[in-house]
Protein 1
Amino acid sequence: MEPVKILINGQWRQTGNKRQVFNPYDNKAVGEVFQASSREIDEAIGAAEEAFHLTRRSAPHERHAVLAAVSRALAGKKEEFASLITAETGKPITLSRGEVERAAFTMATSAEEATRIEGTVLPLDVTPQSANRTAIIRRFPLGVIGAITPFNYPLNLVAHKLGPAIAAGNTVVLKPSSNAPQTALRFAELFVQAGLSKGALNVVPCMGSEIEQLVTDKRVKLISFTGSPAVGWGIKARSGRKRVLLELGGNAGVIVCADAQMDHALKSITQGAFANAGQSCISVQRVYVHESIAEYFTAQIVKLAKSIAAGDPTNPRTVVGPMIDEQAARKVESWIQEAVAQGARILCGGTRQGALLEPTVLAEVAPEMKVSCQEAFAPVVTVDRFSEFKDALERVNTSSYGLQAGIFTNSAADIFTAYRELEVGGVIINDASSFRVDHMPYGGTKESGLGREGIRYAIEEMSEMKLLSLNFS
């Protein structure tokens, strides 16, 4: 296999360093990618800054045309991208196909939103001193956007950075996941082919420690980061005056009330907990079930967990593939063992083979145990019971995270109580916490981060409001 080149200023470049990419399921090499050094990152930032002189003046219809072309091209290469995602990350092929479809939607919506960046007219003649004055308020692009993306959605989360940034007229320097850089680089080819201005998108694969200059360089006006809290908050601390958008994960709680539609709740929660080996920021990790249905619910979720197809990610039946590497699986395995030593019970799963961790259901888990209070990012779910709805809400809120929470109920009173009281960015009713449609606002509170994704909302984050005051006297 030929090493994949990096993209700087519209050119595909070789560098002095290369890094192999391995399939986490069988640990076989699936590619090799050139790595950017400090010099190449500096060049990429400079190219993006220069390209901004063009993109900031580009018309909405021009941005729409590029993004719509990328969406169409991506949809037409669904199998190619799905196979690459599965090879790099071990994501089950059916889920990889779904990710390509989502990314195509994200790009199509970005194209549409490029033509919907509206302004307002604000009358200013509200006092005698401001008579005959009117204001126009519009949004303008910021400049160079630094984007840093993770492995778990190596295509769609890249789309969520690039689509809104380009729709708003910004330029981008992208640092993709070291585990899945080929997907991002192949995606970047589609932008070049669609006619995006030279230098408007630069892709610089490198190790996380080498991207510091993207964080500190004053030419970069905003950093959009998806990843771990430790890294994300460190980026914020070092970023100076630039804007920072952080999506930092969670340990999502789901409440199942006595009036829940049980079959639907079980199916949604099982999928939300175990699909993609639980490697989603909004994966179901903690479930609180009303005591009147707890015994039945627990027995059924254990039954469903045991029936889930796990193993080879290229098999269309597989739901749970490997975690991203054996180290990640070992860490969560140790958390499970630690919880058991402290009094928790394994109802099913708990064993590991390489990077493959069995779908695991735990009971009698104390809130301070790591499998409950930290982000597992694994196919692990804890089940507990509650008697009062207020108590269930409080237990969801004990988390230091606050991304999304799910509630299964038909009680309007409970729904709006939860909406008011839960300390999360999204309250999901009659679906698991893992529910997301790509155009909705997405982001969290507390340790889960700052700002919002979801194309229109990300465009607002990646643009600046500017007022024009007109005096007609």
Protein 2
Amino acid sequence: MDKKSRRDAVRDYKERKVPCGMFAVRCTASGEVWVGQSRNLEAQQNSLWFGLKMGSPVFRAPAAAWREHGEGAFAFEVLEVIDDEDLSPMGRDDALKRRERHWLEALNARKLTG
């Protein structure tokens, strides 16, 4: 890859639109559901699964269920993508908080905190 192609690829990567929104993590064995918000839904599952596999104490309740039931009992689900193109960073954060409250109540879930 020549320098110009590399620069173009790097620029395109930096300018890409990453979806933000709400997600759920479900433990099918225990029936527990956790809801979280993400500024990058595409990378969220990998990040979360890595932390759980490594035994990170950041997410206590999901980590305990992960140790007890294993990865096969877990599912990641995108609940909602928020179109934040016309929102300021503060507006996006407000929208995420508002939708998080909605999904916590709708799914009778716990907040995924970290």
Protein 3
Amino acid sequence: MSQPCRPLSSIVLAAAVAGLAAPAWADDRNDRKQACATAAEDAQQLRMDAKLGAARDRLLVCSRPECPATVLRDCSQWMNEVTALIPTVVLAARDAQGRDVLSARVSIDGVAVASGLDGKAIEVDPGTHTFRFEAGGTATEQAVLIREGEKGRLISVLLDASGTTTATPAITPAPQPARGETPEGHASTSPWTWIFGGAGLVALGIGAYLEVSVNADASSLQGSCGHSCLQSQVDPLVLKQQVLGPIAFGVGALGLGLATYTFFAVPTPNGGATAGVAGLF
């Protein structure tokens, strides 16, 4: 027994519906492909502009399964890279006693991000941002440079939650060193050290000159008169060698000795050490 044939009108209607649906489905597919490609391009530009949060949002669009395979592969890779680069910060505020101000409200570049502090990290784009903390009628701002890839950067401020201005501790000036002392508190070099030292060096120089002069004069006499020189010619050499020279060397040694003594002596505030040196004469 043969089955009844489907009416021709039903077949025509089904074909017409299928014919109308096919173009609509194709257009929708093309629109989704175009949306994926546009999202991928936007994400790349946003990444170059250091707007990593917005770039990740666009990468979510082009990472959907319905996107073309090549776009899906690229966006998935970029998603991992951008997520690793997005910095995070942890907000903290303390009062003058060092206690956490949990009620502090925080805005970043004028945009409110927290109505209280909970210790959780929040994401920010890299770059310089102004963090504003408010609590108890007082506020403070802090400009911070956030770098790509920073995670858990602590942004902490001192905030008086009572609404009063936290007083800045007074800076006590360092005591000036007493006269005759260096800033480290050690005794300065006595002027007698320089006086005695200079005099001693000068005396030693005179003694050395006399010694050289005697040798030169003796050589001159030896060449002019030999062993027949008059006593009046020899006396000046004897005076230099046996009297003036030893005196000069003695004064030089004494001067350097006194300079050494005054250098290691610690002067008292009333100049006791200097008086002691003067008492030697």
Protein 4
Amino acid sequence: MRQRRESLGISQGRLGRHLGLTFSQIQKYEKGSNRIGAGRLYQIADFLGVPPSWFFEGMDGPGAAAVETPGGKAGLPEEVRALTDAFEAIDDPDTRASVLALVRSLVVSTEKRRGSGSGLRG
């Protein structure tokens, strides 16, 4: 949670205010002193712009089966993480918007070739 919050430049106080909590409660969540309930996790994930499952990535541990995607490529979550990290490193809002528009256009183009509807909402 702290990693995502800091990457977005959001303070503990701001996140706490959004959730109706004190910054010290956010601090306890981040340190693991207090558990985060499922409903609160959904609120935090929504505010930080990630699905709740984002907080559990990489927790499968050794010996876990590789993730298979519809395209049959194992390891897609690492590609997604790398893409997300690179996108978050772009400071200029116009550049970020252009990259997002490019990705969306690639999805639309691919779906048109396959004859399916839009799978990327936005």
